[in-house]
Task: structure prediction
Amino acid sequence: MKIYISGKYFERSEARVSVFDHGFLYGDGIFEGMRSYSGKVFRLSDHIERLWESAKGIALEIPFSEVEMERAVNDTLLLNGISDGYIRLIVTRGEGTLGLDHHLCREPQVIIIADKLALYPNELYENGLEIVTASTIRVNPSMLSPQVKSLNYLNNILAKIEAYKAGCAEVLMLNSRGEVAECSGDNIFIYKRGELRTPPPEAGILEGITRRVVLEIAVKTGLRVKETPMTRHDVFTADECFLTGSAAELIPVVKLDNRIIGKGKPGEITKKLLKLFQEETRK
Ligand code: PMP
Result:
């Protein structure tokens, strides 16, 4: 595996960042997780745009142009001979001192890792996922925007620890108003009374790129679509539920907090949207 670090490639065992990098010391940095299909990164320009917005959100100047960044991502994928894979793009604040002062960080570090996919097991796509609600509340947008895909994922990790303790692979996070926000690394959708619903950005979610594509596809197929605040009650009483994310694509959810959603099996709309999404990724 060849890892890209700020213009050079390193073998995995040689790829290093400084222990004084504020990305390491403080989680001061941003990232994107992308997926490639047949050697092409899906919605690369959308990911690059979101990375630039995250950078703006934390007052970080990326030392490249967007075109240069796209080229570096594509080159790393090609060099590693990865066709269907997962790409992690990271920009750290760079090497500084032990203090918080970001001015002392010399140069942001750009890291690109192209790897094989680590997917949910197939069985979960066939039978659906069981999730639980975390007691960890999703970070409040007035404190730190969830739109900033920052290197500090502790809020999500604490929720994910709760998932594993409950024997689940994902976990539902509520916002400080008690509304449904998203999962630790995926957005959530429900299908209820002939309508596809997902929480709006104001619920304190990361606006996922997969979420966006699913909304586009749903509108094209003539489904009624609504970005609307929702509670756990809406999920309990939904006909169908699924999660979206670059790595997961669409994954059905059949239980929340041990309560069966719909018929307790992946729903027809979920399956149809997954098929259409996969067609879109392979275009
Ligand atoms: N929410 C969170 C918190 C995430 O980390 C992610 C990405 N892993 C998503 C949603 C899904 O976003 P995307 O579809 O862009 O991968």
About this structure: The helical segments are 22-26, 44-57, 66-79, 122-127, 154-165, 209-220, 232-236, 268-281. Residues 254 and 260 are 6 Å apart (CA to CA).
